Amino acid sequence: MPETSLSLLDRLRSSPDDADWSRLVEVYTPLLRVWLTRSQVQSADADDLIQDVLLVVHRELPAFHHNQRRGAFRCWLRQIVVFRLRNFWRGRGRLIVAGNDSQLEEQLRQLEDDGSHLSQIWDREHNLAVARKLLEMIESRFTETTRLVFYRLVLDGADADTVASETGLSLNAIFTAKSRVLRELRRLGQGLLD
Questions:
Q1: Those residues with Cβ within 8 angstroms of residue 100's Cβ, 6 or more apart along the chain or in another chain
Q2: Model confidence pLDDT, tens digit, residues 31-84
Q3: How far apart are CA 34 and CA 37, in angstroms?
Q4: Which of 20, 75, 90, 125 is found 20 to 30 A from 162 (Cα to Cα)?
């Protein structure tokens, strides 16, 4: 991955290359697949819908204006998913426009509502999935010990004294290792993650 001060989202909006789009597809495909499956979409149709969602992102991202509010991109993407799912199910006669309160329609309404419980689940799962994928993408930049420290502290929730004991590192070295990985994750994930 080329070193640059721009986040992935900034590069995609200003001067994207094929590698940047490939990274976005790699980051978001698993998350989209999970949510489409929850919406009763079969695997072959999910592949098509994922492609549809990512094509809309590709087409509309240059005009996307990040309003600096937490989760702006994540919410924008969620709305694209809802729109594509609604069109998909209407095309198959599963959603009736006038007053049908089907389970699918209720799920889409909740996903569309920024304050709903389902949207909060989307937000949490989005951040976790994107962070894990970005971490996979950058892990080769760090030593095995630095990765272990980060995983234990951040992903496993171990306390610093325990990790220091396990690795033989000082507390200062533990926090420095964590900080280096977090700084790179924040840089790459700026705009994608809170």
A1: none
A2: 999 999 998 899 999 999 999 999 999 999 888 877 777 788 899 999 999 999
A3: 5
A4: 125
